[in-house]
Specification:
The chain is an alpha+beta fold. It has a single domain, classed as 60s Ribosomal Protein L30, Chain: A. The protein contains 2 helices and 10 strands. It has helices at about 65-75, 105-120; strands at about 5, 10-15, 20-25, 30-35, 40-45, 85-90, 125-130, 135-140, 145-150, 155-160. A hairpin with a 2-residue loop joins strand 9 (about 145-150) and strand 10. The longest helix has 16 residues, at about 105-120. The radius of gyration is 15 Å and the shape is globular. It starts with a strand and ends with a strand.
């Protein structure tokens, strides 16, 4: 069994019995896709909802839309069928309250972009632990599909 750490603007695919982790999620969003029939999946640790128009995207996991696309493409290339994929979302906090009145929070925009993309792709979002004003870390167990989330808000890990 191996554990892979997924940093900001990175993505990783894995298969049971391995696991994927993301640490220090603030406004960033962990986008998790899982194929329960093959017990494999992937995670993208995205930073922003969309790239600026005309910007060349060198790291697809920087953005929600391109992060979702690369996960789907690679899972399908490895043998997963889109109809079996399910999604989970973690993060998207509003970390800086002072800015929340002037601009829509990046975390909220990340969540909205992901939910809209999955709705268009007809991939169900089966669980999410998003929003708030606190950071989170997670571990995604590919054997069970369970995501264990730890935060400073609670000493008891949440499972989704």
């Amino acid at each position: 069994m191996q554990t892979y750490s997924v940093g900001i603007a990175e993505y990783q695919l894995a298969q049971a019995p391995d696991s994927l982790t993301a640490r220090g999620l603030g406004s960033c969003l962990a986008i998790i896709l899982y194929d329960p029939t093959r017990r494999c999946g992937g995670m993208a640790h995205v930073l922003l909802p969309t790239p600026r128009p005309g910007l060349s995207v060198e790291q697809p996991a920087t953005y929600v839309a391109t992060g979702i696309d690369v996960l789907i493409e690679e899972l399908e290339a490895s043998g997963s069928l889109r109809q079996y994929l399910v999604a989970k979302l973690v993060g998207g906090s509003q970390m800086f309250e002072a800015f929340s009145e002037r601009v829509e929070a990046i975390g909220g925009r990340n969540i909205t972009a992901a939910l809209e993309a999955f709705r268009e792709l007809q991939i169900p979002v089966v669980a999410q632990e998003t929003g708030g004003n606190f950071g989170r870390s997670l571990e995604f167990d590919l054997a069970s599909g369970e995501v264990v989330i730890k935060s400073l808000r609670s000493h008891v890990p949440m499972r989704i």
